[in-house]
Amino acid sequence: MGYASLFIIRILQGTGLPAILTMVSSVSKEWSPTITMGSYILLLSTPYQIGPIITMPIAGELCESQWGWPSVYYLQGTITLVLITLFYLFFRDAPDSPHP
User: What is the pTM (predicted TM-score) of this model?
Assistant: First the structure.
């Protein structure tokens, strides 16, 4: 794989993040009063800063465990699927909109 593939993957991640941040501001606009919009944006964008702080030590421990490095992907994939399911079940475009 090498540095070139890592570089390309990081570029793809970097191009996806602005779309997520745009979504965060859009959701904050719909769901919060103007005076608390900053707090909503903070709440929705915090996982991008805290996630690596929590994930990296756990991943290191899992890599050294009896399950090895694949367990990192299984755990993170499971957590992601649970969160996506919860998001789909509970998220609405606006507070007064019906659930899909």
Answer: 0.68
